[in-house]
Specification:
The protein has 326 residues and is α/β, with parallel strands linked by helices. It has a single domain, classed as Metallo-beta-lactamase, Chain A (4-Layer Sandwich), CATH 3.60.15.10. It is built from 6 helices and 18 strands. The strands form 3 sheets. It has an 8-stranded mixed sheet with strand order 1-2-3-4-5-6-7-8, covered by helices on one side. It has a 6-stranded mixed sheet with strand order 9-10-11-12-14-15, with no helix packed on it. Strands 13-18-17-16 form a 4-stranded mixed sheet, with helices on one face. The structure holds zinc ion. Zinc ion binds next to loops.
């Protein structure tokens, strides 16, 4: 009897995971572990589709897990709206080669997407090596990375337990891709072919991307600045949702210095290109980011919510989550 019940539950779970897109709500939304990156923790997918994406040309391609949008002549955003992180990877196309800034969750096969978007050689560079940004690294031949110990460790791959949370109940509303095996889902090891450092300029042909080391969210967080086109790729250092200064490996002090630095760059950019929820925001947010960290440090932010060991400070369009335990 017990076994029959378990089988029924498993069948029910399997049925849930096969619901077609657009007609789906995760089963019981017991998603207490969801760290709120979207608007509403319990029904985050209600915010989708986010209207900001509507202004960009959608590029057709074969992999349903991803959506691809042209946000600039030579910048394509590869978006994963089916999973709570709503992570965005960017394919930046030059005259000589293309740079992939992050490779997503590793749930869908992002290489198959990229192969439909460019015939150029592709170099991968990660905004940082959290697992939701390096999932497809192993599918590519050439990877640039920092020489930091954090990067080296992440490049060794993970056990399935390290990423299982990305598939937890309430975290995914889209059908998982055909052939994807949730039981063996993990972050696969990859080799770093070239070490990058602060101030390096990657010239992809017709576009120069300068690397800024911007630790805080993660020890190996970087931003890319394209000074000629006045664009800053922020990775997870900034986006329009809660910013994570509280997770293991994050450093509030480092993040504050990074925020100060990016605020000083606000006059050099028009847009910030961000890695979660929406792809492009006004560059003036860098000023707001610097001010936000300064105000948190000064203890002058009134709009703060408290939860199990964290404080979330609220600002116009974003928030910052800080750990209570140093
Ligand atoms: Zn991250």
């Amino acid at each position: 009897m017990l076994r029959l019940m378990i089988v029924s539950i498993l069948l029910a779970l399997a049925a849930c995971s096969e619901q077609p897109a657009g007609n789906s709500e995760p089963a019981a939304a017991n998603n207490e572990q969801v760290q709120n990156r979207g608007a509403d923790k319990d029904k985050w997918w209600d915010a989708l589709p986010r209207p900001e994406w509507g202004q960009y040309e959608k590029i057709e391609q074969s992999e349903d897990w991803f959506e691809v949008y042209r946000i600039d002549d030579d910048i394509l955003a590869i978006y994963e709206p089916g999973q709570f992180e709503e992570v965005i990877s960017f394919l930046i196309i030059g005259e000589d080669f293309a740079l992939m800034f992050d490779t997503g969750l590793g749930i869908g096969n992002i290489r198959r997407v990229v192969d439909q978007l460019t015939d150029l050689d592709v170099v991968v560079l990660n905004s940082h090596t959290h697992y939701d940004h390096i999932g497809g690294n192993h599918l590519f031949d050439t990877i640039y990375g920092t020489g930091l110990a954090y990067t080296t460790e992440r490049a060794q791959g993970s056990a399935p337990e390290a990423v299982a949370g990305f598939l937890a109940e309430g975290w995914v509303w889209k059908p998982l891709p055909d052939g994807f095996n949730a039981d063996t889902y993990q972050s696969y090891a990859f080799d770093i072919d070239r070490i990058v450092t602060e101030g390096d300029i990657i010239d992809i042909g017709g576009r120069q991307l300068e690397i800024l080391f911007t630790p805080g969210h993660a020890p190996d967080s970087i931003c890319l600045i394209d000074r000629e086109n006045r664009q800053l790729f922020t990775g997870d250092t900034f986006y329009l949702a809660p910013l994570y200064a509280h997770i293991p490996g994050a450093s509030f002090e480092d993040y504050m210095q990074t925020a100060e630095r990016l605020a000083r760059l606000a006059g050099d950019i028009d847009t910030a290109i961000t890695s979660h929820t929406v792809p492009v925001v006004d560059g003036a947010y860098m000023t707001a980011l610097g001010q936000a960290f300064a105000d948190i440090a000064a203890g002058t932010v009134m709009d703060v919510t408290l939860s199990d060991g964290h404080r979330e400070y609220h600002f116009d369009g974003f928030s910052v989550i800080v750990s209570d335990t140093p």
